[in-house]
Amino acid sequence: MSATDVRPARAGAEPARRRRPELPSSVLGLVGLVAFAALLELLPRTGIVSAEYFPPFSEMVRALVEAAGTDRFWAATAETVQAWGIGLGIALVAGIGLGLLIGSVEVLRRFTASTIEFLRPVPSVALIPLAVLLLGLGLQSTLLLVVYASFWQILIQVIYGVQDVDPVARETARSYHLGRWARVRYLIWPTALPYVMTGVRLGAAVALILAVTAGLVGIGTGLGAEIALAQSSNAVPLVYGLVIFTGLLGVVVNLAARVLERRTLAWHSSVRADVGG
After folding, report:
1. Which positions of the chain have pLDDT values less than 70?
2. What CATH superfamily is the domain 60-264?
3. Domain boundaries, the chain
4. How many Cα neighbours within 13 Å face the side chain of 122?
5. Residues 123-164 pLDDT 10s
6. Which residues contact 53 (CB under 8 A, 6 or more apart)?
């Protein structure tokens, strides 16, 4: 091939294959929600399901908007959020404290392993008769269910985090004669913190579920009680509207937990890689 046969590429020539731009996950999620709402609207209007028991999505939203214009709705929301926040706070303090203690002491971890595995699968709703018997109806019974359900999510994660500490790092800390509190602060806590944040995220979601469930079964107040009242009144669109609102509340809780996790673990390699990707 001669030099004259070599032709320079045209300026601004496009490559043969262009990578198709990918939509952000948030946009895809929004499109999915819109499609799901459209499906909920079409199913009863086309007669696939009975509108008497499953009204169109627009009627659910209309009933929710009407309810949101009343003080009763926001009072119920505040009661649910209050039970969720107090219960989650108690579970956090107890779960983190006991998790660090149990995970740090090998004998204690072995001693409590069977008890934890026995109590952890017990559903919180099974404690409803006991809660009513001991505490009666109201916030205290609701807190018992919320704390019990979310406590195990946090405790197990903290114990796993403490066990994940590098044995070489443990021996190094002992060789430098670090005290117990120094080891917890500079060795155990940084290693366990990602597990703690996972427990917080899981516990927050479970706590909200039980805060609503307590009202549904009649031992507490809040959004669950409003759903039960709407059902007994045959206000079907309002029932679905309140269910949608509790779902939105759960999304807010999950997003807030993820934001807290990212900010708390901004130094962690997994979070930096996720943000960088």
Report:
1. 1-21, 23, 268-277
2. MetI-like (1.10.3720.10)
3. 60-264
4. 12
5. 888 888 888 888 888 889 999 999 999 999 999 999 999 988
6. 236
